[in-house]
Write a structure and sequence with these properties.
heterotrimer, A alpha/beta (258), B alpha/beta (294), C alpha/beta (221), A: alpha/beta, Rossmann fold, 4-stranded antiparallel β-sheet, 10 strands, 39% helix, C: 221 residues
């Protein structure tokens, strides 16, 4: 197997009884790349994302991560503690609803600091400083560090979720409809933040979304899913400008123009 | 006469030694052995119906019951005092069902059951301290799901515990937790020491005694074997401090013991006295001896 | 050198009665370093389509596009992304940006993508915006609210901030007045002198005549 990939999923299948969650999906991603997974509701994109992150058990297929020491780990074969540790430090998962990815009754600083404390940081002053830096990076006023996320707007909550996930410098971030529940004006800010972070930190991102406008602005390559299968894959602008598959064409032509 | 002795006999025959039946004691002892082998780990056990409701020390009582042998000398304290209603009731309970000798002197006891305090008098080897525990799970108020907290202990995922301390410092400028202050047992599991004041935490560390913890309603037992390292959680720049009220006991004059604050008059005058009644008595005795010598 | 060999393009529209639209067949030509080739032909003959095929935005139906030694049809998406970063630039007719991002940041993005340090990139961005006469007070505003001509110039700034060896231009002077047209044409000439191989679509005949080395008419091939 070639050693220069960061993350690779091969022939992933997940069934719910007779129903297909996703079937025979393969994808790979290298550092600094953004991969988009698009499709409508029920296409299996969220199932796929949860499978490759390790949240759901796959029925078939393998998931490989090239870890920091250049060893290739197979998610389906490593122990749960090891997987959870990787999920907490090397990977990140940004949920569609920030409430699923934040502790609403803990302050913003505590939310960002949690991952640090989990990997052994024991200096309060340092933790607070790192948390403040991250609040600045995601453009949340540093004076809000002790406020609870329940007092934040949706956009701020989402940005806090991103900060909380990135504080341990993960190399790969999974996002499930990252701009889903947000106002359009707020979406723009988050999109720009994500692009800058990807570029600055060299992280890779896999983004699930049904919004083609978002994927066009964020992703380099995309895969299109329908009923659990990948129907088309390629350069983002190519798939959106010159879709080859019938379903991709339908999807693209259905987007409303503003 | 016969009627009377018949009744007494009936009393003793209805209850097994120390109330619980031998099979239950066996089950609890197995749990205790497991607990001692894995310091700080919460071992589930099958908590029995006891003749007092949950919340009144049933866990501690079941552990004591499983440990008692006829030649034990039992001491029972509640918030440091031997003479509160609960301490008296529990002591009478074991006198009746086990007929063991009882004492108020810490140094004379072989088994001490306590609610929410560790005796001031230093414990010795072969002494057993049984704590009554309401909520055995230190992470419970941060993470309500039992499935999650079990995983967190199994995987040593204690970030959340430190988050709680972080929140305290952020809000109050210092770690606010005054009792049930979490500790790391044997460098491994984070444990709830039961609602003892944090002043008592250092006593748990490297103690020559056997420390057993019973939570009846929650059905968990855990233990700390003798000479085990027990460290209170803290931050490098906000280290743990064992604190107490900065006064002297108004009875014995001690400035080293944990004090209870009591209101002594209608206009709100306060007085501070030792929470540990036995210790206070001992100190008073020592003081009068010193006075006699002078 | 850019080589177009026997290039065919057709679209198969599955959701519209499986209509097949053929744009062009058997296009052949070359573009050398330091040359500007202007594509001509009436509307609908596939000029923009050709640029998109070269850039990789459209799939090649038949034939080959070679950029130096790279065969576009045989390249993986990753290869094309790499090519676009370092060697192949494209100025389209439309400004597609993330909303609310300031103009100066939009313009320096290509430099940041190849790892240029932010301070240096900002300096270059300011230089080119000045050159294209975009007023300073607009640099921190999103270009999406600008006039057509201003948007076009921002697009140009983004396309010319880095010296791409290969450059594709789709109507670069379309919405501009004469002064601004000249500025842009100056930029194109400069790139030409630098050795870039350029393919452009110029609706304006005068502009075309000024910079083009030669013309390729898609209707006559």
């Amino acid at each position: 197997m070639k050693q220069d990939f960061l993350f690779k999923a091969s022939n992933i299948s997940k069934y719910y009884g007779q129903n297909i969650g996703c079937k025979n999906v393969s994808l790979d991603i290298n550092p600094g790349e953004v991969l988009g997974i698009v499709g409508e509701s029920g296409s299996g994109k969220s199932t796929l994302l949860n499978c490759i992150y390790g949240n759901l058990e796959v029925d078939e297929g393998d998931i490989f991560l090239n870890d920091k020491s250049k060893t290739i780990l197979n998610f389906t074969k490593i122990s749960e503690p090891k997987l959870r540790l990787i999920q907490r430090s090397d990977l990140a998962f940004v949920h569609q609803n920030p409430r699923d990815g934040l502790r609403m009754n803990i302050s913003a600083g505590g939310n960002i600091g949690e991952r640090l404390m989990a990997i052994g940081h024991r200096n309060y002053g340092e933790i607070r400083e790192i948390a403040s830096n991250w609040l600045e990076k995601v453009e949340i006023d540093v004076s809000r560090i002790d406020d609870k996320p329940s007092t934040f707007s949706g956009g701020m909550q989402q940005r806090l979720q991103i900060a909380r996930n990135l504080v341990t410098r993960p190399r790969l971030i999974f996002m499930d409809e990252p701009t889903g529940g947000l106002d359009v004006s707020v979406q723009a800010k988050i999109l720009d933040l994500l692009r800058n972070l990807v570029r600055e930190l060299g992280i890779a991102a896999i983004i699930v979304t049904h919004d083609l406008a978002v994927v066009r602005l964020l992703a380099d390559r995309i895969i299109v899913m329908q009923n659990g299968n990948v129907v088309e894959a390629g350069l983002c602008d190519q798939v959106l400008d010159d879709p080859q598959h019938k379903y991709s064409q339908l999807l693209v032509s259905s987007v409303l123009q503003v | 006469m016969n009627e009377m002795s018949k009744n007494e006999n009936i009393d003793i025959q209805i209850y097994n030694f120390a109330y619980l039946d031998e099979n239950t004691k066996r089950m609890i002892r197995r749990a205790l052995l497991k607990a001692l082998c894995i310091p700080g780990y919460q071992v589930p056990f099958s908590s029995r119906e006891m003749p007092m409701p949950y919340g009144w020390g049933t866990g501690g009582i079941q552990v004591t019951s499983a440990c008692l042998i006829p030649k034990d000398v039992l001491k029972v304290i509640d918030q440091g005092a031997d003479d509160t209603t609960n301490a008296v009731s529990i002591r009478k309970f074991f006198q009746k069902t086990a007929n063991v000798a009882v004492t108020e002197k810490t140094s004379d006891a072989s088994l001490i059951q306590t609610r929410h305090r560790i005796p001031e008098t230093k414990l010795k080897e072969k002494q057993i301290l049984v704590y009554q525990v309401p909520i055995p799970e230190p992470l419970r108020f941060l993470e309500p799901r039992e499935t999650e907290t079990r995983k967190m202990h199994a995987l040593s995922e204690y970030g959340l515990m430190y988050v709680k301390l972080y929140e305290d410092i952020a809000k109050h400028g210092h770690i606010e937790t005054a009792y049930a202050y979490p500790v790391k047992t044997n460098g491994n599991y984070v444990t709830d020491p039961s609602p003892i004041p944090k002043f008592d935490n250092p006593k748990m560390n490297n103690s020559p005694a056997i420390q057993l913890f019973g939570a009846g309603r929650e059905q968990r037992i855990y233990a700390i074997p003798p000479y085990t390292n027990v460290k209170s959680l803290d931050f490098e720049d906000y280290p743990f401090e064992a604190m107490k009220a900065n006064f002297k006991c108004s009875i014995c004059g001690s400035s080293d013991s944990y004090l209870d604050e009591i209101i002594v008059s209608d206009d709100g005058k306060r007085s501070y006295i030792c929470s540990d009644t036995d210790y206070c008595k001992e100190q008073t005795k020592l003081n009068s001896k010193k006075e006699d010598q002078l | 050198m850019i080589q177009i060999k026997n290039l065919n393009k057709s679209f198969e529209l599955y959701n519209q009665n499986n209509t097949n639209i053929n744009v062009f067949k058997n296009i052949n030509f070359k573009v050398n370093k330091g040359e500007v080739v202007a594509l001509t032909g009436n509307s609908g003959t596939g000029k923009s389509t050709l640029l998109k095929l070269i850039y990789g935005s459209y799939i090649i139906s038949k034939g080959d596009v070679l950029i130096s030694d790279i065969n576009i049809r045989k390249s993986t998406p990753r290869d094309i992304l790499k090519l676009r970063k370092n060697r192949l630039g494209y100025v389209s007719q439309f400004l597609r940006v993330v909303p609310r991002v300031p103009t100066i940041e939009v313009v320096i993005e290509p430099l940041l993508d190849i790892g240029c340090e932010k301070n240096i990139a900002l300096k270059k961005g300011q230089e080119i915006l000045e050159r294209l006469k975009i007023p300073k007070n607009l640099w921190n505003l999103s270009p999406l609210t600008f006039s057509g001509g201003e948007q076009q110039r921002v697009n140009i700034a983004r396309g010319f901030i880095y010296n791409y060896p290969y450059l594709l231009l789709d109507e670069p002077t379309a919405s501009l007045d004469q002064n601004n047209k000249n500025i842009v044409l100056d930029l194109i000439e400069k790139a030409k002198l630098n050795g870039s191989a350029i393919i452009g679509i110029f609706h304006d005949e005068i502009a075309r005549n000024r910079v083009a080395s030669r013309e390729v008419n898609l209707e006559n091939l």
